[in-house]
Amino acid sequence: MAILTISREYGSGGREIGRLVAQRLGYAYVDKERLFQDLEKGGQRWGRVAREVDEVCPTFWERHDWQYRGYVAQVEALILEYAAADRVVIIGRGGSFLLQGVPFCLRVRLLAPLEVRLERIMIRESLSREAAQRLITKVDGDRACYVKANYGGDWAEEDIYDLTLNTGSLAYEQVAEMLAEALEDKDRRATPEAREALGDMALAHRLKARVATDPRVLIPTLEVGFEEGIITVAGIIHTPRELHLVQEMVKEVCGDRQVRLDLHHRV
User: Fold this and answer.
1) Could you tell me the CA-to-CA distances from 55 to 47, 96, 105, 117, 223 in Å, in that order?
2) Hey, what CATH topology would domain 3-190 get?
3) Fold held by 214-265
4) Which of 51, 119, 159, 262 is most buried, taking the most CB atoms under 10 A from its CB?
């Protein structure tokens, strides 16, 4: 089963097209509201943080802030959890970058001429032309900055995506039909090995989110990955107590799964 990630210019119809594909194929649909609901299950704090920093350009201080890093880690863990469950449409939030390398993920970018997007936003949001222009500039700028800050990539780089489609010359229904057909090809690439690798990636990020959101442990250089069948946790710790807490979290999240800790004390 395949996964669809949609990166979209503001006003290009990403949400509408994503819903059409999900309805047509019986896929789950994951947008910001779905993610916000999931985050709020972990406490009101994270729902509030999400609404403040979701897909916006983080300041220098936010990039190193415990809450911001915890928010991003949770969003990544949630996206990977949905992806590992298959048959899902994921809107934005760097999903195309996070799932890069997953062979059964169709990564799509939607764009449209500025004039077309202006008309859509003016009607949808009841805005003047000037206000719609400012909103498009801000939203697109924030989305590009979010991807750059968290994944080091260029949001508009077409080589990242499997398909780039212009919704200014295509009806939303046409685009949805094209994506549904493209997902059929991706379905064939969902081998047991590829699915297992994605499941391991999801588990590693679930562990990262658990560590990153525990205020008792502050590891600004925290990195969690998966190499040769082993989950790895790397970073700088400050006290033996932090090491003990991380070990407890590893057991809580990963059970008996082998995990290599590469944690070093600050000197």
Assistant:
1) 14, 14, 21, 19, 21
2) Rossmann fold (3.40.50)
3) Alpha-Beta Plaits (3.30.70)
4) 119
